[in-house]
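Can anyone check this?
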Amino acid sequence: MFKNTIFRRMTALVLTLALAAAAALPGLAVYPMPIQTASETEAVYLFNADTGKTILNQNADQQQYVASLTKLMTALLLLESGKDLNGEVTVPTALTQEFRDIQNANGTTMGLRIGETVRRIDLLNAMLIVSANDAASVIAYDVGGSVLDFVKQMNARAEELGCTGTNFTCAHGLFDYGNVSTAQDLAKIAAACAANQTFAQVASTASYVLPATNLRKAEHTISSSNSLMNSESANYREYVRWVKGGFTTLAGRCIVAFAEKDGHTYGLVILGCDTPDHLFAECDDLFDWAFASFADRPLVDTQTEITTVALTKCRTEPAVELYAAAPVSGYGHADDIVTYSFDLPESVAATVKSGSVVGTATVYLDGDEVGTVDLVTHKEYVSDFRTDTKATALLLCALVFILAALTAVTLAAGGGSLNLKRRKHRR
């Protein structure tokens, strides 16, 4: 169990580090907001969950109340604790005042009572599907030994994930004061959650049957009210994989959602929206835009010159023209810029045959590495030596021909003179 926990933490760390790195790198495109949000104060953060790349950013680094999105961290700590999810927990007397405070704040609950025994997996489902605040408090007490100590663990884990604007003061988010985060920070927490298969499975569940307990004699069903995952809703999107929403008067409407289509995944955080209708409509519009705007597209062909290398021992050509040995494609926006880094010699000496591999090019799309391809020539570059040899051979052939002709003429002329002398001698 401990090894699994370490693995999950390492996987989540890689994802969150990718998010942090992508946000910090200069020159990477953050695209103009394709929609007008209901309020200019809303925080919006859309990112590619596969690479961590920031896609859209509106007020994403500003602290906001986050309501029940707090429960993402509560779920993460339970899943990373190594505790048996099928194991049972008894609601302790120590949570009596906590439950009263939840009731006074009109918080959503699963109806737990002091002394009730319930499985951890049931607590997790109730907390993520219907945002049960009492379930979050029981998880906090179970994992942390007390709610206060659990909150300390929450903040420590947030710091581990690279969160810089987050401060948790409770396990459920119902009590606003001091319980804040940013859209960027919540993206890091959500990425860590998404790396956990159990979390993704529970968060994607629309309804769940809570079994009977020692104090509840009948099972009952809980159901999500999230429109994005309700197939009968106009806001339903088939590609949405999981959602966690939240609301308090101070926080407004908040949501974290992950969507996947054609092997590509996006994460979205919205904080401080005014109404559920606006919130779900914005989610739909932003996900629709992302999947419509980004696609696999050709980046490099084999017929376009990519670069050159200086050529020596050749007077007729100053450089060798290099082309990709194979086409390269990548996933990105139509406006993304293709750039290269090269592994090439400073120069090459002729003769260079057509099709020779001279070096490699690493292809980047908007700063993200796509792949590496060999660079080849498309023609032969002949050396001066070969050129001079041919010229010399032709000259020699010409000289030989001329000498042969002169020899023939000389011999012919000499033969005529000799015959004349012989005739004179006979007379």
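Reply from J.R.: I decoded it. The chain is about 35% helix and 25% strand.
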